[in-house]
UniProtKB/TrEMBL annotation:
The keyword Oxidoreductase applies. This is Short-chain dehydrogenase/reductase. It comes from Pseudorhodoplanes sinuspersici. GO terms for molecular function: oxidoreductase activity. Keywords: Oxidoreductase. Pfam families: adh_short. It comes from the Bacteria. Belongs to the short-chain dehydrogenases/reductases (SDR) family. Residues 8-181 form the Ketoreductase domain.
């Protein structure tokens, strides 16, 4: 495989803030034709000022997805690199996460990612080259209590990659997953806000608060293993541009060693340890 051409468009989803924004800036600064997208195009002003093209895109809407890929392809030719970054973090005890919220998480993290890949593939096949980079997560390899829905979606992204990677390889297309551990991002505050509040009578009232406290600590910039945003963005850029990419890039201490520890520990030990971190009966500070 060769490195993607700088003249072929780089299409990035979920660029309103955080990793998507940082990644778009890296591609643009390196001279790539960069198409930054988000549901709210008003949140893309910084990227537009930096020289990125910006387009509105809702990865859960078929019409929106088709319109963006068609527009980019008609004006610039086949997409050279697709960065599937758009994501949604749904946390909370599984009994209390509504079917609507579960569907929303899967529509964004799995179905939207797959559909964007399907839509760019015909152009990549015609060109005989292309790169699809999925922003997966440590959460697709190691499961923590309180994050069942999010983990389910990321495990699905991992399975999708293993199935699709060999399917598209004969057409000159690389498919790469990037699996970050915890890193500094606006995602931290969004996760807390997405935990369902079922009121004072909920049997998970204390537990849900502890899930939130645990995630705030886990993603705190001062916590061991939490990385700066730019470190992750640089790995995404590498995954999208290096001539011979790995199939997966684990980013950070926890992404490298967390799966090893989980493999070595029994389920009962992990359950006991996590129940100490996220108890049902005593609120964490």
């Amino acid at each position: 495989m060769s490195a993607p051409s700088k003249s072929a468009p780089v299409l990035i989803t979920g660029c309103s803030s955080g990793l998507g924004e940082a990644t778009a800036l890296l591609f643009r600064e390196a001279g790539f034709l960069t198409i930054a997208t988000a549901r709210d195009p008003l949140k893309l002003k910084r990227l537009a000022a930096a020289g990125c093209e910006t387009l509105p895109l809702d990865v859960t809407d078929e019409i929106s997805q088709q319109a963006v890929v068609r527009d980019v392809t008609q004006r610039h030719g086949p997409v050279g690199v697709l960065i599937n970054n758009a994501g949604y973090g749904q946390y909370g005890p599984l009994e209390e996460v509504s079917p609507e919220l579960v569907r929303r998480a899967f529509e964004t993290n799995v179905f939207g990612l797959l559909r964007m890949s399907q839509l760019v593939m015909p152009g990549m096949r015609r060109a005989g080259r292309g790169r699809i980079v999925n922003i997966s997560s440590l959460a697709g390899r190691v499961t923590a209590q309180g994050g069942g829905v999010y983990h389910m979606t990321k495990y699905a992204v991992e399975a999708l990659a293993d199935a699709m990677r060999a399917e598209v390889k004969p057409f000159g297309v690389d498919l790469v997953n990037v699996l970050p551990g915890p890193f500094v991002s606006p995602y931290r505050d969004k996760v807390i806000g997405n935990i369902p509040d079922m009121g004072p009578d909920s049997p998970y009232r204390i537990y849900s608060r502890n899930v939130g406290a645990y995630m705030l600590h886990f993603l705190d910039p001062k916590t061991f293993g939490t990385m700066p945003l730019d470190k992750v963005a640089r790995v995404v850029f590498k995954a999208g541009t290096t001539p011979r990419p790995r199939t997966r890039y684990n980013v950070g201490f926890w992404a490298h060693f967390g799966p090893v520890g989980r493999y070595l520990a029994s389920d009962r030990v992990v359950d006991w340890w996590m129940s100490r971190k996220i108890p049902h009966d005593v609120e964490r500070e």
